[in-house]
TrEMBL record:
Protein name, UniProt field: ABC-2 type transport system ATP-binding protein
Keyword presence, ATP-binding: yes
PANTHER family recorded: ABC TRANSPORTER, ATP-BINDING PROTEIN
Composition bias, Low complexity: 318-356
SUPFAM superfamilies: P-loop containing nucleoside triphosphate hydrolases
InterPro entries given in the database record: AAA+_ATPase, ABC_transporter-like_ATP-bd, ABC_transporter-like_CS, P-loop_NTPase
Length: 364
């Protein structure tokens, strides 16, 4: 179990992360999701003590600094470009293994596991971005660790690579490890993670099982299809319902199909189709993070814990629930595409930071 308690960091320009507390359980992949600039990398660096800041994170009760044999306990992918560009992939892994007390046979094993055997003798600087990412992951796996902390592990990978890493992380979690992987890609995280920690503007937006997140917060609208949308729109509005027109469809802000059908019946408007449409991952996430971004003065943000934080909806794809009304129609609705990035934070104007700390800008 990873326990992060009161993590915080303030940069001079007001960016950073607020008072973040959450837990990460073993046996599942936990997705750490947030738009560009939300504070994911900062949080990960704080968890590992790689940057100065507030709070404490324990891995099975000990901080990263206290863990004996950190390489063999906590595997970290924080900077895929960490290998010296002139050193071969194999030499880099041998060097890290020697420093971390890991037997050198592990080098061959992780090269094979990450699909790098054929480029093992290539200098790291001549590897593609995807290969560098695999090398970072190989480094994290060297010590066969119980905990994995991975910052954007799918970054730079092609679609096959993304699928490969998804399968790999699920397998590692299935072995009982604790896998914590950040991403700014919505659908990718939904396919990978069982638990979700969402941050925006340096604040915790939600934490908990993905399914629960969806159940508790998915928003549903009734969609009505009719040849007479104007007449139905007036009737629905008179009945106190919020409604908008999308092409010839009316989207009614309720999940109550019977009420919509009754209003249509009273108004004498024939409805061709009536169904419930649940909001997709993208919609829900954007709504959640927009609210957090609007409120964001991250460095000064008050405490936000997993239990106390407001949560919002996400779903891997949209579901259309056929309604017991006029002409039931289970029409597939919007779903997030596999590569839908979350837009950058409105409140954070600094470009995404994969860059190392700029210490002179920091306030401890
Ligand atoms: N060393 C630094 N000095 C000043 N500001 C920083 C520094 N590092 C990060 N920031 C700012 O802190 C905020 C959070 O950045 P961070 O890199 O943690 O976000 P992120 O969620 O990992 O983003 P991305 O998905 O783009 O990698 C951003 O506004 C960023 O510009």
């Amino acid at each position: 179990m990873i326990v992060a308690d009161g993590l915080g960091k303030s940069y001079r320009d007001g960016a950073g992360v607020g008072d973040l507390s959450f837990t990460v359980r073993p046996g599942v992949v936990t997705g750490f999701l947030g738009p560009n600039g939300a504070g994911k990398s900062t949080t990960i660096r704080l968890m590992l003590g790689l940057t100065r800041g507030r709070g404490r994170t324990t891995f099975g009760g000990r901080t990263y600094a206290e863990v004996p044999g950190p390489l063999r306990t906590v595997g970290v992918l924080a900077d895929a470009a960490a290998a010296h560009p002139a050193r071969t992939a194999a030499a880099h892994l041998h060097m890290v293994a020697a420093g971390g007390g890991v037997p050198s046979r592990r080098v061959r094993e992780v090269l094979a596991e990450t699909g790098l055997t054929s480029v093992a003798r290539k200098p790291a600087g001549r590897l593609s971005l995807g290969m560098k990412q695999r090398l970072g992951l190989a480094t994290a796996l060297l010590g066969d660790p119980e905990y994995l902390i991975l910052d954007e592990p799918a970054n730079g990978l092609d679609p096959q690579g993304v699928r490969w890493i998804r399968d790999l992380l699920k397998r590692l979690a299935g072995e009982g490890r604790t896998v914590f992987a950040s991403s700014h890609l919505l659908a990718e995280t939904a396919l990978l993670a069982e638990d979700l920690i969402v941050i925006a503007g340096g604040r915790l937006v939600s934490a908990g099982p993905l399914d629960e997140f969806v159940r508790r917060h998915a928003r549903a609208d009734v969609v009505a299809r009719t040849e007479h949308p104007a007449a139905l729109l007036v009737a629905l509005a008179r009945d106190g319902l919020r409604v908008r027109q999308e092409a010839r469809d009316l989207v009614v802000e309720t999940a109550d199909t019977e009420r919509v059908a009754a209003v249509a019946g009273r108004a004498g408007v024939q409805v061709r189709e009536l169904f419930v449409r649940q909001s997709g991952l993208e919609d829900a996430f954007l709504a959640a993070t927009a609210a957090a971004s609007a409120a964001a003065t991250p460095a000064a943000a008050g405490p936000a814990t997993a239990a106390a934080a407001p949560a919002v909806a996400a779903t891997a794809g949209a579901a259309a629930t056929p309604a017991a009304a006029a002409t039931p129609a289970a029409t597939p609705t919007e779903s997030a595409t596999a590569a839908t990035p979350i837009p950058p934070q409105a409140a954070t104007t600094t470009p995404p930071s994969a860059a190392p700390d700029r210490p002179r800008q920091e306030l401890p």
